[in-house]
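Long-time lurker, first post. I've been practising inverse folding by hand and with some scripts of my own, and I keep getting stuck on stretches where the structure tokens seem ambiguous. Below is the full token string for one chain I'm working on. Before anyone asks, I'm not after the true native sequence, just a reasonable design that respects the backbone. If someone could post their per-position residues I'd love to compare against what I wrote down in my notebook.
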């Protein structure tokens, strides 16, 4: 994979194909990991770290990032859905909130956090 990646020509005026390949590689890697560890008690939290460059998204793209939770624990999924998470890979267009609210949401979903009265 590394040799093939180094051999590819990059068009610095059109980064979209390279970005798509990078995302596809990430998804393939994650899917392989999930397939390998799918049995038993499993929780994986995937948090996007930033948006692609404006050459890929165009100007004015949102700074929101997706958060995916993959788990075999149905109670966690139920609590996340009650807080606006949806099934599948496509997040809703409307963000659930700012990043600084994610910690409370996740702790509550895992059943270890009780907000102060």
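-- Answer (accepted) --
I ran through it position by position. Result:
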């Amino acid at each position: 994979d590394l040799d093939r990646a180094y051999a590819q020509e990059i068009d610095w005026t059109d980064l979209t194909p390279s970005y798509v390949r990078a995302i596809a590689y990430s998804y393939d890697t994650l899917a392989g990991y999930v397939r390998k560890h799918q049995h038993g008690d499993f929780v994986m939290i995937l948090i996007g770290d930033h948006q692609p460059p404006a050459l890929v998204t165009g100007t004015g793209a949102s700074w929101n990032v997706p958060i995916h939770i993959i788990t075999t624990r149905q109670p966690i999924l139920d609590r996340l859905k009650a807080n606006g998470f949806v099934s599948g890979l496509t997040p809703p267009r409307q963000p659930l909130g700012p990043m600084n609210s994610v910690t409370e949401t996740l702790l509550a979903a895992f059943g270890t956090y009780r907000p102060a009265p």
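A couple of notes from the structure itself: The two ends are 53 Å apart (CA to CA). Helices lie at 2-7, 16-36, 54-57, 74-82, 102-109. Happy to go over any region you disagree with.
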